[in-house]
Description:
globular, alpha+beta, single chain, 17 strands
Amino acid sequence: MRIGTISDYFNWKTAAIFLFQFLLVITILGYRAWKDTSVECIRCHSDKKKMEQLGFPELYATQEMVEKESRHPYVHCIQCHLGNGRAKDPDKAHKGMLAVFFVDHDGKVIKRKDIYKGALLPTGEDKIRQMLPHVEIDGESWPHWMVRNVLWHDRSKETFGYDPKIARKTCGKSGCHPSEFKQFNTTHMGTNFRQRTMRTWLEPYGPHNCGPSFADISRTEKLTKIGFSFENTEKIANELNMPFSRQQAIDKQKFCNVCHTGCLDCHYAPDVEKGVHNFTKIPRSESCGGYGRGTSICHPGAMQSRRGGTYIGGDYSIPTGMEPDAHYKKDIHCVDCHTTGEKGMGDMQRKASCQDCHIEIEDAHSKSIHKNMDCASCHVNELRGYQITVWGPGEIAGRENPFKKYSLYYGIQKPPVLIKDQKGIWMPVKVWPHSVGNIKPDVKPSERLMFRWPDGQTRDAYYVLGTFDSQANNKHLLWLELQQASHPFGKARDCDSCHKERQVAVSEWEFMDNQGAEDNFKGGYRIVAGKDGLRIDDMHNTTSIKAAEGYKIEDFASWLHFKDKWRVPGDFSIKTEKEKYDKYISISLKTKRELKNIEKKINEKDKKVKKRFKELKGIVLHDQDSAERSINEFKEKFR
C-alpha cells in the first residue's frame, strides 16, 4: 500500500459511520451499566422507618449489611433476586423478582406475605424444622401448619425442582460462578441422574422405595432444562389396573422434585448471628440435611428415612433421638470426607476413605481377619426410619391418586443385618418390606439378590418376590429393599451379634401417617438371615388397625395378607469356626486388659506418648494377630 492511501478512503462519511458505531457501543454499554444497579432497591429497603410503616420490618437491608452477610463484595440485589433495580414503583421493581417461596400440603405455592411476616431465620427447638415459618400457639412456637416445604429461589414454582435457567441468570452469570454452574449441571446431583433412571416400577431394574419418575424429563448427561414429560406416565399407567392421569403424575412428581438439590440448598444458610443473607463456601452437615426445612428435602429422605441412619443425630433422625455420628461430634462435616470428584462442583463422592485420617487403623484392618468387612459393619449399631412401605390409593395434592406412599411406619431396627456387596465385602444394610397395589402384569421373583448398579456405583440391593392377589387392590407387587447403611459411626457392636448360627434383627415400629388408618397403630417383625436365606418373620401388629372412612386396609397395610411371603434365597450366613472364634475372643479380652493397664500408667506422661498410645489402640483392636507384638514394642519404647 502506497503512502497516503488511507486518506483516500477516510472522508466525512466514514468518519460519521465510525462515530455512530462508537456512540452506539457507548450507549449500549452505558445503558447496561445504568440498568445493572439496585439503587432503588437499596433506597427503599434501607429506610428502616419506611419498612416498618409498610409492615415489613424484617425486609430492612442496607448495601453494607448484604455485602457483609453474604461475603459478596459489591453485590447488587438484582444479581441474585432479578427484578428491576431502577424502578421506583414497587410492582414494577418486583416484577420477575426471585424470592424464597413456601409450598403447602396440596402442592400449591403460598405467598410468604400472606401467612408469615417475620425474618426467615432458624427458630424453635426442633432443629430439623427450624427454617419453617413458625407461629405461636398457647405461648409455644410451632412450625406453621400450612407449610410443607420452604424452597430457595433457584427452584421452579411450576415443578419445584432446581431450574438451570434461573441459576444461569443468577449464580451462573458471567462474573459470578459460571464455571461452577456448568460443572454442577453435568453431575449426578445436578442432573438427578439416578432418580431419572427409574422409568417404571420394573424398568430398568426392579422397584425402588422412591418409586419411578412419574412425570419427569428423561435422564441426560447435562441438565439444560426442566419440566414434565409423560413418556414414563404412559408406561406406568399401562401396568396399572386403575386410571392414572397426567395430572396425578404431575402431583407425584412435584413432591419428588422437592427432595433434589440446587446451588442454594448447599450454599445458602440464613443464620441468627450471621444474618438472613448468609452464604457458606463449604457446606456444613446441616445443609446436607436440608438446613432445618423439614424431613422431605435433601438427605433426610435418603439417609434418615430410607437408610435409617443419621449423621447429625437428635432431631435429624427418625424417630428422633439417635446418637450423632462420632465424626460429627468432632466437628467433621460431610464434605470433609465426601470430597468433590473430577467433574467439579456438585460431584460429591459417595465412597469416603477412612485412610486420610486413620492410616494405622486402615493398615491394620487390611491385614486382619475382618479385612473383607467395611468399617460400618462393626460401627453402625441400629437403623431407624421406614420399617414398611406400602404404595396404594390415597390423596396427593388434595386429589385421589393410586400412588400414595404409606411409608411412615417409623421405628428402630437392630442390630443391622450384614450382607456381601458386589465385590464380596460385608456391609450393614437396612432390610424392609415393600408393596404396590393394582399392578396389572404378572411379575416373577428375582433369580437372586439383585444390585441396582452391578458395577458398584451404589451398593444397594433388592429382591422382587413377585405379584400376589389379596382381598382388594388386585395384584400387589412385593419386594424387599436392602439398602447400604453408612452412619452413624459409634462404638463397635458385640462380636456375638454377628457370630451366631443366624443373624437376627428386630424391628419395632409405629404407623404415623395422616391417611389410611383411623388411628396410629404399632407392630414389629424379625429379620432372620442364615445359610438357608433371608426372611421377614413374625410380622405383627400390637395394637388394632382400623381403616379410616373411604380407605381399605389393603391401601396402607397390605402386608397383613402377605406375612409369609418375604423370603430371599441365598446364603447369608457368617461362617464361624468355634475354635477360631474362641481363640480371637480370648486375644481380644487379653488385649483390652493390657490396654487398660497401660492407660493407667501413661496418664501423667507427655502428649507424644498419649498420641502413640491412641495409635496403638487403633492398631491392636483392628488386628488381633499383631496385638501382642505391638503392645510389647510399645512397652519397650515407652518404659
